[in-house]
Amino acid sequence: MTIERRDLLLGTAALAAGSSLGAPAVLAQRGGRTLLLAAPGAPEGFDGDALRPGTQEVVVQVYEGLTRYGRTLRNGRPYLNPDVIEGHLAESWTSSADGKSWVFKLRQGVKSPYGNELTAADVEWSWAKSFAQRRTGNFIANVANVTAVKAQSRYEVVFTLSAPSLILLSALTLYVPGIYDSTEVKKHATAEDPWGLKWMESHTAGFGAYHLETLRAGEQAIFVANPNYFREEPHFNRVIFRAVPSAASRITLLRSGQVQWIHRPLLQQVAELRSDRRVKAQDSFGRTISSIRMNLRFKPFDNKLVRQALNYAVDKQALIQGVYFGLAEQARSIIPPIVAGYDPSAFSYDHDPAKAKALLAQANFDFSQELEIFYSQIFNWEEALSIQVASQLQAIGVKARAVRISDSDMRARGAPARQDMPMFAFEDGPIVLDPVYTTYLLAHSRGVSNRARFADPRMDALIDEARQSLDVPRRNELMRQAQALWMEEAPWIVTVYPSVWEAMAPNISGWCPHPDDHERWYDLKVG
To answer: In principle, which of 52, 133, 189, 411 could form an S-S bond with 45, CB 3.0–4.6 Å?
Structure first.
């Protein structure tokens, strides 16, 4: 089943360099069927609801959605078309007149690598797992208004919603809540671990194109094609996912032909890679926002005039060149341009030091205090951005300095239960290409990526009404108001939407960018 969504959206919109991973001649003998991939680290788990380093990169290869986005070609490259939603593990669906009950008919004959057929019981069990874990999948359920998922027959599953949702079909394209082979996982569950989470730390059980064959912790994971996959056999029947912590080493291996794909070259390396015929570097849309976040529970950030002043003080164009090497777009909304409904009209924070000083004077800002900008190494731009923003704030008389903390501290201190950093650098963006999902994720008081605990009843009301509305013009207007309110309140120093780049062997084709920023091995081929 295919549904056009144009009317539902808001517009258009640990090896050293030189070490061997297998010579190109060996790859040729295998007929090009093994994909060698170098990443910063090996996967540390395979549960999409409990993301650890390397998890998301691989679970998207194993767990697939009931639906999927359509595809389109632009300049000879494939891209997702978020205006079209197609059936995937589900072949069709119907909804009740009030939009609160959806029945999905599963595709028959879909099997896991263990030979077990996909049934409605698998879907029910998988969503129950996410509900119980109360993590990523549970958040997806909440934002899509899903309250229950029940098997109606062997191949029919019913989704019950608390209110209508135009997000549901898009949310079902995701890898989370993952659709697990519950028959296999239950074999490894215990009374203390009813969902088999311990087993999932080193095993997979999905209905996707690949599954885990072997894992050497901290070194590599080997995946093989699902022999029972319901679509055409993938070009690569084996993928070696090797940990190569050094970015320079990963590039050396790619240039020498010892790997065919590397994860996320540094932006400062992209310009050099683009002129190197031994590799191919391609970019995708920026769906995340790099920002300096301010926690309104701490002074002086409880004063809106201060927050606005700091936004005027920062020269975004200088950051684009100095931090992102020109490979970014200035951010003008909490919603990125790739998402329908992006509205930059409320943005007014072009670089204006004089206006910044005037607002600080109006706010009776205490220039003797020091502002600390916390940053980590989760994103490779954090240090440079934090240092440059601190320098630009110093230029208007604000005492500011960048303070490095560990990655684990950054994650812990930004978690919902804590959120105790007054000012810090981070990057977030939607994995569902929908404006209401985006604002719920980043700006709602219950948003899991609202890491500075911005809480405004007016914002919550706008988002909650939009989540439950089937009135498209009204939904459009609510999202316009939400973006305007966000800019007025200025809880972040919005900087840029960074581009995402991937680097590969020149004979690799088929990469289609996804909103989670991870390639799908199934798409890739030689030639």
So the answer is: 52
Cα–Cα distance measured from residue 251 to residue 279, given in angstroms and rounded to the nearest whole number: 9
Residue 442 lies in domain: 289-498
Helices 382-394/304-313 angle, 10° precision: 100
Q: Six-digit token pair at 462?
A: 């706008």
Place of tokens 């809540």: 177
Same domain? For 349 and 465 the reply is: yes
pTM of the model: 0.86
pLDDT tens column, 494-510: 999 998 899 999 999 99
Long-range residue pairs from 184-189, CB within 8 A, at least 24 positions apart, any chain: 184/112, 184/114, 184/116, 185/125, 186/125
CATH number at residue 294: 3.10.105.10
CB 225 within 8 A of CB 107: no
* CA proximity to 328, closest of 372, 275, 284, 375: 284
Residue type present at position 292: I
Q: Identify the helix (H) or strand (E) that includes residue 268.
A: helix 267-274
Chain Cα centroid distance, residue 23: 33
Q: Tokens standing for 53?
A: 């380093």
